[in-house]
Every structure is written in C-alpha cells, then in structure tokens.
From TrEMBL, chains A, B, C:
Its main location: membrane. This is Glycine transporter domain-containing protein. Belongs to the UPF0126 family. The chain crosses the membrane at residues 6-26, 33-50, 62-80, 115-140. It comes from the Bacteria. GO terms for cellular component: plasma membrane. Residues 10-82, 95-170 form the Glycine transporter domain. It is a multi-pass membrane protein. It holds the Pfam family Gly_transporter. The keyword S-adenosyl-L-methionine does not apply.
Length: 207, 207, 207
C-alpha cells in the first residue's frame, strides 16, 4: 500500500466514523430508518458539501462519487441492527473520529488552496470540512451544536490549527508540500488528544 | 386543459399548500406579518432552492419567475386574516400537502437528472425538493424538524421512493419518460396515504 | 472624506457592530474563544455570504477581502477580554446595529440588482444581507431566531423596506441612483427608530 492509498483509506475511515456518530445520535433521538440514513449522511458529507458550496464547486463532490453514500447506507443499517453493540464502542469511535477530523481539516484546507482562497478562506474551508457535518447533525437533531459548547475537548480549534499548518506549509515551505496533509492532520489529532489526556482547554470567559 | 397545464396547476397547488402550512405555523408561533410571509415563503420555495443550490443552478428558480412569491404573499395575508377558518381545514390541507410532496419530489428528481446527477444525487434532489422547505420552516421556528421524527406518517421516505421511481423510469424505461413524473408523484402519494390509512411505518430502533 | 469613503466607513462600523453582538451572545452562552470568534464572524458576514450564495457569486465576498475577518478577530478578543464593559454599551450598540442594518440592506439590494435579480430577488437580497447573520447566530446558539419573533422592534421588515426603496429608485428614478443607497439605508433606520421611539409594531395575529 503506497502513500496516496494510505491517505484514501484513512479518508474513508473518517467518513465512516462520522457516519456512525450521526447514526448513533439518530437512534438515540428515535428517528426512523430513513432519518438514521439522512443524519448519518449529513454528518459524513455535510462538512465537505458546505465547503464545496462556498468555493463554488457544484454539485458537491459527494454527488460525483457516490460510492461513499452506499457506504453510509451500509453503516446506517448496521447501526440500526446492532445499536447496542455499536454504542459500546465509545473509545474506538472517539479515536477514529479524531483521525477523521484531522484528515478532513487538512484535505479541506488543501481544497481551499486549490480554489484560490486566501488565509482565512483556507482556515475556514478546513475547519468547516472537519466540523460542518457535526453542526448540521446537531441542528437537525434539535440540539445546540456541541462543537462550540463550553468546556469540551478542543475540536473546532484543533481543526483550524491543522488547516493553518497546511496553509503555512503550502505557502512558505513548498518543498514540503508532499507532507502538508500529513503534518496538518497530525497537528489536529495531537491537539485533540492532548486536550483529552492533559485537560488542555481554550479559555472560556465568564459572562 | 392538457397534461402539462394539469401538472403546472398541481405544482401551483402544491406550492400554495406548503405556503399555507408555513403561514399557519408562523401564526401559532406569534410571528408578525413579515415573519408569516417569510415562513410561508421559505416553506413553499425552500426545498427547491436548496436543490438549485446543490446542482449549481443559481440564482434559484424562484427568483427567475417571481409570480410564485406574489402568490405566497397573498396566502400569508389570507392566513393572517382568516386564521381561525384556515386552521380548521386540516383535512384538505393534509391531502393537498401530500399531492405537493409527490409533485415536488418527482419534479426535483427530474431536475437532478437534467443537471447530470447520479443515483443518490437524484434521490437527494427529489427528497430535498419535497421536504427541504418543511425542514427550514421548523429550524427557523425553533422546532426539531418534524420530518425525521419518530412514529409519523411516511414523509421523507415517501418522497425518496417517488424520486427513485422517476430515476428508474428515465434510466431503464426511457419509452415511458412522459409518464415518469406522474408515476413518481403517484408513488409518493400512495405511500404516504397508505401509511396514514394502514398505519404503515418505518421501523424505529429502540435506543 | 468623500462620499464613497464615508459609506465604506459606515459599512465597516456596521460589520464590527454585528461582530460585537455575535461575540456578546457567545460569551453569554459560555462558548470558548474559538466559538466566540466563529459566532462573531458568522453574525458579521453571514448575511452577505447567504446573499452571495443565492446570486451565485462564489466564493463569497468575505473570502476575497479578508481584512474584515482580521477585524472580527480583534473584536472577539476585545469582547472576550472586556466583556463586562462592552456589555454595558447597550445603547451605542443598538444605534450602530441600526445603522448597520440599514447599510447592509441597501447594499444587498444593490448587489441583487447588479446580478440581475427582479423585485422579490432584490428585496430578499437586501433583507437577508441585513438579517441573515443574526439568524445564523441564533440558530448556532440554539435559540429561536429573534428576528421573526413576536412583539419586537421592526427589524426584518425595516430592512425589507429599505431594500424596496433602493429597488424603486434604481428602476424608476435612475437619475437619483447616487442617492439610492443613502435613501434606502435611511428608510430602514427611520423605521426601526420610530418603532423603538413610537412603539410602531407590525400586527401579530392571535392564534
């Protein structure tokens, strides 16, 4: 397995983990089967689709390569059928979700660069790729989007930091471009894990 | 009245029914007059506009033929003025809404095909045309989008099934293309009505 | 300072005021630092970005001139650091917000005209430019979008009226085009202020 294949494999893992988290929430909210599929799909591909909308690349990527949707359908059926067992997989899901966040953020920032966005455009494209699906999931399920909410592990900010690393490498160290995605994703993953393991938090002001 | 005119008439009826359902919710939520108009409009044309955004057909159709917005304005004024009487029209509104769902889903799937979307793209374009307006309506009114929620009549899934029928006919039975819209819409309507009359439900897993 | 510079200055003031209102809500909701920045940014540029999405001008303006985002970052840091003092500035923030609403609505309507939208398209472009950011802010913070809600000062409707004035002047009094923005903005501001000072309200029907 070479390097691009390895990245693609990780990208798939990320998508499927995000789909699983959407499907699990849908079951908790007692959505029916189609609702589970929709929430799983929105969580998995929503972030990338918002990014594609913003850079003007329409229709979004997901509708040009639909194999990912078939995979989301499979995940939805599995979660529906084996809810009890899947929902006990907290820990592996957490780690896959972290890897997914890192990869989506790095790939989103790269896509922003491809479409000629500037500094904040790339940060935004990376961050929204990473966290947009989760935000749509929470809004559709009637919850405050957890991504901003108080006192959690670093999440959106970890994605932003990864996108920032990708941007900096492409702009200032083009000789390292081959490594940009990997370094960006690693940054996001490292930040999120250190926030879990070391209790690292962003400051929250008192109102 | 020939067949295209008949379809267009139904399409108008569908739009106006959706507008009515938005306006009624706005009155219940004590929105003011502009809020009623906005919620009616979003419900009536929101689904089609999300679809147009996704296929990259901008500005959305509604801004190229604005007569529909004048009609929504009229509906809003009527609902505002005659709230009591309109809100008692539950049953006819339910049937018109069902017809509207079927027509929007079929027309949305056809539009997806026109713009070169694949299988899931067409299903999505059809479904979001049918249910997108209602989702926006619920989010803007601060409710969990009822479309996914537990134990209701088939709704999003009925729309998806209708879009599926349109897709299959266009792809595999092109000689029947003239009937595709009608058969798709009929599928959606039949599924929704049988869910109401026969208690047909999608399975909802227990969390 | 000439007239275009004066308008641009007001536009900046408007953006910064909107950013401040987003940042203040984020602090009240106990968002962390990144959440504050995101909510401030969405409030400041969300309306204009929805408008750009709808007219098909992608990527949105904000990603082509990023200085506004740096300013939003600065505002977020200031609100975070000086929350107590900023939150007591109710009254100046209210007036700046009113000026901002008027300017955004007028500028949005003009942009709609530039992209060839018709009557309702321009009204919508103007209104969504003015109030879209606040709607996104409220949805992301888990609140019913205050913009529609009962018994408040005129807000969305004031923005629509301003956009209407811009549209009418451009279409029917082209010789006054240079004044269109100013007259539109003034209409919005005058309506909102008279609703505050005189208790002017839109009718709200009883459900």
């Amino acid at each position: 397995m070479n390097y691009p294949q390895f990245l693609e494999l990780l990208g798939w893992l990320a998508t499927l983990t995000f789909a699983t988290s959407g499907a699990l929430l849908a079951v908790q909210k007692r959505f029916d089967l189609v609702g589970i599929f929709v929430l799983a799909g929105v969580t998995a591909v929503g972030g990338g689709s918002i990014r594609d909308l913003l850079v003007g690349s329409l229709p979004p990527q997901v509708f040009r390569n639909e194999s990912v949707i078939w995979a989301v359908l499979l995940i939805s059926l599995l979660v529906w059928r084996f809810y009890g067992r899947v929902s006990r997989l907290d820990r592996p899901i957490y780690y896959l979700d972290t890897v997914g966040l890192g990869l989506f953020a790095a790939l989103g920032a790269e896509r922003g660069l491809t479409f000629g966005l500037g500094f904040w455009g790339c940060i935004f494209a990376g961050t929204v790729s990473g966290v947009g699906g989760g935000i749509l999931r929470d809004v559709l399920a009637g919850e405050v989007p957890g991504v901003f909410y108080r006192n959690r592990d670093l999440y959106a900010s970890a994605a932003s930091a990864g996108a920032l690393v990708v941007f900096i490498i492409y702009k200032f160290f083009p000789s390292l471009a081959a490594l940009a995605l990997l370094l960006g994703a690693t940054t996001t993953i490292a930040l999120r894990l250190s926030s879990r393991w070391l209790g690292l938090r962003l400051p929250t002001p008192k109102p």
